[in-house]
Amino acid sequence: MKKTFQLNTDWKFSKLPDGRDSRPVFEAVELPHTWYEEGNGYRGLCVYEKEVELPSGSKAAYVKFFGADQKAEVLVNGTPVGTHEGGYSAFAVPVPADALSDGRFMLQVYLTNEKNNVISPLAGDFTIFGGLYRGVEVIVTDDARFDYSYFGTDGVWAYTSVSEKKGEVHVRTKTVNSANATVSLVLKDADGRCAASAIGNVNSEIVLTLENPVLWNGKNSVYQYELTTELIVNGECVDRICRKVGFKTLTMDAKEGAFLNGKHIRINGVSKHQDTDQKYYAESQEDREQDFELIREIGANAVRLSHYQHIDETYTLADEAGLLVWAEIPLLKMNQDLAMQENARLQLKELILQTMHHVSIFCWGIQNEIGMFGDYPYMTEVIRQMKDEAKELDPSRLVTAANLYGVKAKSGLNHSTDMIGYNCYFGWYYGEMHDYSDFLDKLHENLPEMPLGMSEYGVDSNIKLHTDTPMIRDYSEEYQAVWHETVYNIFKQKSYLWGSFVWNMFDFSSDMRKEGGQLNRNAKGLVTYDRKTRKDAFYYYKAQWSEESFVHICSKRFERRATDDITVRIYTNQPAVTLFVNDERFAEGNNDGNGTVVFEHVPMNMENGAEAEVKVKAVAGPCQDDAIFTRVAEAEESYKLPDSGAGQAVKNWFLTGNELSKEGYFSIEDIACELLENEEARKVLAEEMPVVFKLMTERDVIPLGLSLKSILSRDESGLDVKKINDRLNLIKAE
């Protein structure tokens, strides 16, 4: 029978900056491990080495890697035994016969995260850390066995389906040396009783059927069954795989949204990356559990596991928490290189085969914002092919994609999947936060048959930055909070939306960023990178989603105030709040229906010209929260970020949105790649903005899937934007 041994200790590691000709300078490391260091994002070749000892008489063995970022070549005793291209899926390589007979071998892994144009992701607003960051194990088996090298699976993969009152478990296997073998399947319920069983042939589909299966029903019920798959030779079990499976249905309607097991559900989701402060990708199971505790606390019912395959334990946590999962591959940019497209297909196949038994997964995401650098017909064709491939592997689930706001309704990228999400950032990168309403209504009008939701939305905030007058791009905690209040309230009123995913649950690493007073951070999280601080916006969503009674006083970190009175903002899911100031009842306020209670003109008096503390207490039903604010003479300068561009989502603006566009003609609100495709418009750009035009026409320097307005919002050269727009207004749009 199979035995598994962890290989996470006693490794030697060295960077190889000059390639394999480098002389290794080894250091001792343990797995999980990444070579990334803050401010030193090395992207190049490295080598890991470890001596492995096997039990005597081992007949067959595999070395399994749960995550190798990004391209790996594995050697045993100096001989190559396998390669893998992709930093997020598991893979395994067989141990050669001579190493088995010796009982020990030297394992080497050459691993690189160098930039390339083949392995996805080719681009993305997150860090490519590098490393054996999820651990390694050796699997020792009999001669007849499941094939542990088959696309990173353990040789068994399964999905479930439900129709009327019948449940089916569809199981396939891939085996080795199994000419005389059969496969035995047993499905047990949560009490350990046999619910269904079957015997079938190896390397073929076997279907288990049971009447009236108990359904997994999100947070209401996380009921699962245990599926045991055994390889039988001459009446004896020689290999066994056990895993949990569950039954559910998740359907979408373009007018009414999502239905879980036939009942309407609003998807209230958050997105998450897999990195955490100091550990980066080399997170522990405790780190993952902490993340899910915070997701439980906020009350979300879904999680988008962005932008790649996560470790298997993450999907298990979602199964057990009753969270619906949007699972996806790291296809964030596409080119016409067939090798690149084949790698994306490989990563999709690995994702589906390795995780399809997880009941929490409701859709497969096959692209995210690939229109960023242009929207071309070949992209649509490839995405449609990938959808078909996903459906062939798993016909039970939806296939989805996330488009950035610049992708037009008519684009083939909006007609290639079962459902669609949009990534929009009005009130941050472009436009005003209220623009979501008209944008979504028009999109729905032009896509009447496509289930539509919000796959990303959010703004950056730094918990050290605060203001009484929050405004766009000030990076304050207050602007993030009021932005989410405004935007999510718009979403709630759109009954056709299947739901939304906040971007992001946690701040995460992005080594291309330097903004908001922070380095290497995308700070759109509702929780800080170290998971120690819930931002105020976290509590806004808790007020929307959680059934746990609570009250929260906002802006506690905005402690030093230089005004005679302040506004105190409260988030709660209780109907009313009573506010006490210095232990005296100040006022009572009712929940506005959006989880918010606001108290204005709360006095901040100084004592004889000296600083004075003001104690504030909020009481809501059984809940209480306290804060202390200090009245000071001068405004605290550390709360402001110099030169942030606050209040200027778009620089040099003196035009309103309505004055920009002219029906039937081009304007700076048109998508950049469409302007470049028109000869007259292209000439205008070349003449009026030569430096930016050069960047736009150089390969992959500027994301052409954005509007010209959005691109120019970050230009510092003082362009005459009005003149550019006026000239474009004279050119008829095709």
Structure explained in plain terms:
Helices cover 20% and strands 33% of the residues. By secondary structure, the protein is α+β, with helices and mostly antiparallel strands. The protein has an eight-stranded parallel beta barrel with strand order 23-24-25-26-27-28-29-30. Helix 2 runs parallel beside helix 3 (312-321), helix 7 (477-492) packs parallel to helix 8 and helix 11 crosses helix 12 (690-697). It is globular and about 90 Å long.
Mean pLDDT: 94
Q: Do you know the CATH architecture of the largest domain?
A: Alpha-Beta Barrel
Apparent shape: globular
Strand content: 25-35%
Measure the end-to-end span: 67 Å
Query: Main β-sheet, in a few words?
Result: 8 strands, parallel, barrel
Indicate the low-confidence ranges by residue numbers: 649-658
> Radius of gyration from the CA trace?
28 Å
- Helix fraction by DSSP (H/I, runs of at least 4): 10-25%
User: What is the CATH class of the largest domain?
Assistant: Alpha Beta
CATH topology of the largest domain: TIM Barrel
By secondary-structure content and strand pairing, the structural class works out as alpha+beta
- How do the strands line up in the largest sheet? 23-24-25-26-27-28-29-30
Keywords for this entry:
734 residues, single chain, Jelly Rolls, six-stranded antiparallel sheet, Immunoglobulin-like, TIM Barrel
Briefly say what this structure is.
The chain has 734 residues and is an alpha+beta fold.
